[in-house]
Automatic annotation (TrEMBL):
Pfam families the record matches: DivIC
InterPro entries, A to Z: FtsL/DivIC (IPR007060)
Taxonomic source organism: Psychroflexus aurantiacus
Name recorded for this polypeptide: Septum formation initiator family protein
Length: 110
């Protein structure tokens, strides 16, 4: 196909229009090459979504911790928490920790 034949095609006339060419270059520049490009905005939006998910997670953790602190206002609850979490004991008292086989961390699980 010769250049003269291409000039007669309607799509070639449209694409060779200087405004269409300028608009095409502008769109490529704005979508991919500019510092505020669409690609950068997409990455930033993904980061925003991750941060918002983290925010929700930590807000839920704060609610759980506040509930635990409210429960620990009682001295009996403080003692129970210390015994269960930190394996604390009273003087002259023995504590036996029983671990079941399915709760042990073995090399086979990893």
């Amino acid at each position: 196909m010769k250049y003269k034949d291409l000039k007669k095609k309607p799509w070639f006339k449209f694409m060779s229009n200087k405004y269409v060419l300028l608009l095409t270059v502008f769109l490529i520049w704005m979508l991919f090459l500019d510092s505020n490009s669409w690609l950068i905005h997409r990455e930033l939006n993904q980061e925003i979504d991750e941060v918002e998910a983290n925010k929700l997670y930590y807000q839920n953790e704060i609610k759980k911790d506040r509930q635990i602190l409210k429960e620990l206002e009682d001295s009996i609850e403080i003692e129970r928490f210390a015994r269960e979490t930190y394996f604390m004991k009273r003087p002259h008292e023995d504590i036996y920790i029983i671990e079941y086989e399915d709760s042990l961390n073995t090399d086979k699980d990893e």
